Predict the structure.
Amino acid sequence: EIVLTQSPATLSLSTGERGTLSCRASQSVSSYLAWYQQKPGQAPRLLIYDASNRATGIPARFSGSGSGTDFTLTITSLEPEDFAVYYCQQRSNWPLTFGGGTKVEIK
Amino acid sequence: QITLKESGPTLVKPTQTLTLTCTFSGFSLTTSGMGVGWIRQPPGKALEWLALIYGDDDKYYSPSLKSRLTITKDSSKNQVVLTLTNMDPVDTATYFCAHRRVVGGTNWFDPWGQGTLVTVSS
């Protein structure tokens, strides 16, 4: 099973700041990695798929990069609605696995 | 527009079997490459993938829960059913279903249902 390790666990930032979230895989997942955003009481929403493709309707301030074992989600200028928990997920190997999440909180 | 909604009991007793139904609209499981997955999330914890079924009846399960899980579909009703046997308090979680499209889609879970909280307690 591929283990996804997200860091940091919590990221404290202010509106307008840049956020950089990391996801590291225990073995290569090629580019088969996605990022989801989850707000309290809501279902996750697909943000980025195949490492760097924005899903439909996702603002350009969200971007993804990386391949192999190291991936990054960048939020260039945080908006109030971006404070949430972010999860990465891989589909390179069964079983599908998720990371432990990074909470982006207001500083 | 694709929508999914989970339904089922909110409270189950230990050792009982949980049956959850995902009712969806906006797509058909008879279309090639269409799938529906189940994912759960214990309160305050991370997401855990459980099972996935495609229209051709290909099924995939989490190895850690495979002996307790069954996923089935009723394409005529636009429903996918998940059963989890021998429920335990550690199975307390919000259970989500989600759409996945291999061909002509992103091949990721998108969108998700709102989720349903299931509590296991005597």
